[in-house]
Amino acid sequence: MAAEVAAAASVLGAASQAKTTFYDPLRQKISNSKRLEEVHEALKYAIDSLVSIRDELEIEVQNHKATKRPAKLYITWVGKVQKIEDEVEGFETPYGIQIKKSKYRSFSSRSKLSDKMKAKASVIIHLLEEERQFRSILVDREPERVVKMTPPDIKNFPALQRALEQRLVWLKEDEVKGIRVHGALATGKTTIMQNLNDHSQVFETFVVVIWLHVSTGGNKGNISTPELQRAIARRLILHIEGSNHVDEVAERIRDSLKDKKYLLLLDDVRQDLDLHQIGIPESQGSKIVLTTTMGHVCNSMVQEVIKVGKFSEDEALNMFQYVLNFPNLSDNPHIERFLRKVVQLYDFHPLRIKLAATAFKLRGPGEKWWREGYSNLIKWSRKGDHPMKKMYDLLQDSCDNLNDAQKNCFLYGTLYPEGTDIYEDCLLDCWSAQDFIGGDDDVDEILRHLKMVSLLEDGALKRHVRMEKWMREAALFILSTNVGCKYLVKTSDALQEPPLLAHWKDKEGISLADNDLNRLPDRPDCLVLWTLFLQRNPNLIQIPASFFECMGKLRVLNLYRTGIVSLPTSLSNLICLKVLYLNGCSGLVSLPPQIGELELLEVLDIRGSRVSCLPPQIRNLIHLRHLSLSVTSSSGGETNPEDCVFPYSEISRLPQLEELFIDIKCRDRNKMLSSVITNTATMEKLKIFRLCFLDEAEVVIEVVAATPKIPVPREANLITFLGKIEESLHCDKFQVFIDCEISNPQIPKPFRYNRFVRYCNGKWRDPPISNILDKADAVELFNSEEQFLSDFETDGMNQVQHCLLESCKNIRSIVDGYMNCSILGNLERLYMKDLPKLESIWMGPMNGQLQSLSKLKTLVLIKCPKLIMTLSHGVIQQLYEIRHLEIRECCGTEDIISGPSSAGLDPGVLPKLRKLVLHDMPNLERICPDKSLEWPSLEKLVIRGCPNVNEVPFTKSNAMKLISIEVDRCWWERLNWQELQVKERLSKLLPPVTFSFSHDSHELGKRHLSRYMCSLVAMLMLALLINFS
What we know:
By secondary structure, the chain is of the alpha/beta class. 35% of the residues lie in helices and 15% in strands. The protein has a 21-stranded mixed sheet, with helices on both faces.
């Protein structure tokens, strides 16, 4: 709060001292301007200046967002700027109209517009002057209270749930400062603590919750104190780059936590910890919870202890069946017996049970497989005496049930550091690059299968996966026991020196990720190496010139977030390389010419580097299908779009490019977007085009079956860009989603359309929106603010053939008859749903709009409670082409066709109507005023839930093509029939009587239905008695 107050003071400090005069010349110019054109020019200059300053400040906010957040007064200022920007944009249309008019004929309206513009200019100058008072727009960012971990649900496992609840009780007790949870390996200790981390009581009780992995992999001890300090500093958003001494960092941590009520969660502690040395203070109300396999660890800091052991038999069975996910498996008594034997064999140990269930899941639900699987478990259980041997053997059995590609993909996951959430797309790229993937293998299907059998789990982030800690350790153990181990994995070990050269030889996969490496060896012998992971080694600045000389078979090279400043010339030796990650290498300023010799390269990611230009040799990458890069200024900063460098000349020459991801770091995004899309429009194989901005807004264009799918956030700068999309793409097909996610259109599929727009939560009058809508042939509008569909400032949307309106709370009518132009002249299908204020289809006179709705074939209205009358005399004559009319749940509707009688109405109206559906309208009284209409094409009639309709508008000479009628039988019998011949003719079109009374019950209620059934049963019994006698 102190920081916020200080920032507020700095924002307003100088404002009270003296009036700012910096913008007085601009103010004077606007005030003295007499001509509308001069005022418009000055206003344009002022708003451009304001927006440019806003964008520069926003870049500063983004550059420091990891540790700083914008001050509240700055946020308010940005909101004002956004509002005035929108308001100034609104002057463009009336200004354009006035410019076209004679100066003398429009003097009054020009003067009024000029005064309005001057008033807005004054507001802009005031905002510019406010910005001059800013001394600081940023304040220190507070860490999140809790970082959610989305753990497994333990409600069905009482032993784990009890341990969690006990910890929650102890956290409330003042005398309890520390809690230890200990138990054997993989008994659920970490799962309990993850649930504790995410618990609502913890969120409400503590100011900050800190989770620390205190050990990694198979190490016997804890990770080093500096590593623990770095992890705490990251969590508390502390800058400690210049603090190299342990005591100095400890003091920084101590200062940050001393006044906070914190909860410290320490996972997998293997030795006593000196919390004072780390910098953890003793703070009032703060608590420490730790997990360990050792009952003596950290005795001095704990007051309460929980021991986690094996499951009960019922819990073990529940877990086994939960992992299997085979419905009704326990109904088979033979398999149920095997289930109990398996959980007993593995002594009700949670992880062993999970691995055993995984092995059986791969085999399937058949009893034969269960017998064979149980025999294998017996065999594995008799081998070896390693404390984790049974788990390793179970995992080996699971791997034996995978095919070669699945097994190799699973084991490949061990190259990633422990606890890593792996982005699925990157994992799939790495798998695809390996020799163990054959032409018939589908990597997406392999990933789905490994997740299905629980060998990989969903990560905390969307589209991420992870390998559980003990699953990874067991997999590494399997690899290490194989003769000639092919992987070298040294991750998160704080390594500063690389492994000895002898350890590099004959390896197919090497992972040294998440370390502190400051050098690499010269010319390691890696003739069979396929994958090299060096990501997140920030101290690795230089790669030896000869490093890649003996890596001719390398497929995947990951240098993400290393400190490298260049790539060696030996890069040209990587002739088999398919995946290269250089993203986050902020010191890398260029790619060497040798990049062009990587002819098999398929994936290249240089986002977050300082590479601004691609070398011309990049065009030699004829197999490149995915490219990710950042677009910045030529100097590497974020400036004007004129200075921004987009290497479209080189990119456009990549013949196989399918995916292009671009981070844009320019001030004027609209101009940059236009340039980027225009210059990539001719790339025929491009399928996914993602643009990401500094403020994390994102445009994604997906091309599916030659149709670009474009979701656009509801954000002013992007809205103004919309008008350029269809023209820039040069395509006959597109799907645009504004302020909504990509999903399938709700307009029924049988109707074909190529240019589709879904627009949510907006004003239809935004000019760019109107331009897009004019080019669409199918439109869906949700939650719009307008009153008439004709309120669009468009050319009438006369290309639209299919339209859906849903949840538009203000819309009163489709056509405003007082407008002078026709709209929706080609509309064939109109669906309207949940429109609470809709009063009519057409409001006002019919003159001058003879083409509006003239081709409409299908009209569907659902839940429009204020719609009293559906079709007026004028509208019904306009709908000459209508084939399908359907009205449902419009509780206020009284008439379908209005008027006291059909006098003056052509009997031949609705000549093509084939289907009429009326559903659930309790106040409907009439379909039409009398029976004069011919209904020449009507084939199907459906009327249900309309109890107040007393007659149907048919005679013995009309509706002669009617072949099907669906109605409530009781209602049909109650109708007024002036001619019994008509009833007899039409009754033959009803379906046969059945005993399905669902619709009758809707009309009559349970009491009437019971009477009807009783009477029917009585009649049947009487008939039987007569026949019997």
